[in-house]
Amino acid sequence: MAKVLRIINRFNLGGPTYNVAYLTKYLAPDYDTLLVGGSNTKDEACSDYIIKKLGIHAITIPEMSREIGYNDLIAYAKIKNIIKRYKPDIVHTHASKAGYLGRRAAISLKVPVIVHTFHGHIFHSYFNKQATSLFKSLEQSLAKKTDAIIAISPIQKDELCNIHKIAPEEKFRVIPLGFDLNRFQENLQEKRKIFRTRYNLKDDDIVISSVGRLVPIKNHPLFIKSIAKVKEKTNKNVKAIIVGDGALRKEFVELAHSLNLNVSTPEKTEPNPDIIFTSWIEDADIVFAGSEIAALSSFNEGTPVSLIEAQASNIPVISTNVGGVKDIIIEGKTGLLCENDNVDDYAEKLLTLVENSKLREEMSLNGWEFVKNKFHYSRLVNDVKLLYDELLENSQIK
Q1: Helix 377-397 crosses helix 15-26 at what angle (to 10 degrees)?
Q2: Dihedral over Cα of 247, 251, 254, 255: its sign
Q3: Do residues 286 and 263 make contact, with C-beta atoms less than 8 angstroms apart?
Q4: Bridge partners of 7?
Q5: How confident is the model at residue 18, as a pLDDT?
Q6: How many Cα atoms occupy the beta-carbon half-sphere of 306 within 13 Å?
Q7: If you ran DSSP here, which 8-state letter would residue 327 be given?
Q8: Helix, strand, coil proportions of the chain in percent (round to 5)?
């Protein structure tokens, strides 16, 4: 049985953790996998429960953190020691920090096959021009010694190949993410009641939920400003739910207050809030079952899991047209796309969904049919197995 060392940036709540968990669990018995990752930050929800629920034992390297510094040297040494002990046939890294440290270690120890997955990229909206240029050159150098690079959407592949010139097209494979989406179709009315009772939501409230870390890249100010504009133009009872947490929560609450919006937080509940900050909620299926619309306002994205989960829950989505978003929405059929950081455009299209219940209903019917097979974990596992088989066969030929 071939052995895979799978390395992920951090065990934080999100698509990458779900995907490494499913690959670790379900590539067996063809591939034995050892899963390694860093710890989640204080601003992120921990995803240990995802790993444990599947009965997976994972190794955590606390030094593999978001920050760049001395701890990277410690993490690098630990990864090299794991490779020496485990002797993998394949090292497969996921996301930027794991991709850099894991691939460098694998290259130095001459691991037969090296694979990297871009779950997103950091080549715009994250760092200044000089830092971005440095990271791009590091990725280009590593790509030369990587046997295959996985992009999670056709748009992402095009960006990485043709815009950022990370590697030639033949190095890339497009393998979309995969999830257990069936739970988003189960007990919808019961989950809806749980969510709406928990946050005192009325039957006629139109609930718009945004799920994600409260960090600059997610651009929550666009969402909050759009909510304020929509409430000025509609007679509907609109409620915004912001699920997630982070260092910017206080700043976002202050922004909402400056726009004359009433705000509830976990620490202070208002009787009739316009926006509710919930902090982290593990069960996204309950959130979306209790919502009418799912929203995303990011400056940059890979494949945002929340939009896939929302469509699996039969609700329409609205998002900025960034990264791989266009590959996971059928525009006009399952959701609406907006210009990046354009409040007027975002608010206008959000208002369209708020006012038009028939359009929301039509989009709801289309969502599940679109995502149920395209983004199921069984398809993900099969795609990756075929890639591994091919790469191992080629490595033996070499």
Answers
A1: 70
A2: negative
A3: no
A4: 36, 93
A5: 87
A6: 28
A7: G
A8: 45, 20, 35
Q: What is the pLDDT of residue 195?
A: 98
| Positions of the chain with pLDDT under 50 | 125-126, 398
What whole-number distance in Å separates Cα of residue 97 and Cα of residue 203?
45
Helix or strand run (H / E) with residue 10: strand 2-10
CA gap 241, 13 in Å, rounded: 18
Count the Cβ atoms, other than its own, within 10 Å of residue 353.
23
Residue in 64, 93, 97, 120 with CA at minimum distance from that of residue 6: 93
CB 243 within 8 A of CB 209: yes
Q: State the pLDDT at residue 122.
A: 52
Q: What is the pLDDT of residue 46?
A: 67
- Whole-angstrom Cα distance, residue 16 to residue 51? 12
Tokens standing for residue 84: 């020496």
| The CA-based dihedral angle spanning residues 227, 231, 237, 238, taken in that order and rounded to the nearest 10 degrees | -10
Amino acid at 393: E
3-state class (DSSP) for residue 149: strand
* Rg of the chain, C-alpha, whole Å: 21
| Single pTM value for the model | 0.80
Q: Please give the Cα distance from 3 to 282 (Å, whole number).
A: 31
pLDDT score recorded for residue 125: 47
State the pLDDT at residue 41: 67
- CA torsion 320-221-300-106 (nearest 10°) is -150
pLDDT of residue 302: 77
Task: Look at the block and give the residue holding tokens 């990264």.
Answer: 323
| Residues with Cβ within 8 Å of residue 20, at least 6 apart in sequence | 6, 8, 35, 37, 94
Beta partners for residue 32, in sequence order? 3
Map out the domains of the chain with their CATH numbers.
Answer: 2-178+376-397 (3.40.50.2000), 182-374 (3.40.50.2000)
- CA 213, CA 272: separation in Å to the nearest integer? 24
| pLDDT value, residue 156 | 87
- Is the separation of the CB atoms in 19 and 177 below 8 Å? yes
Is residue 172 within 8 A of residue 163, CB to CB? The reply is no
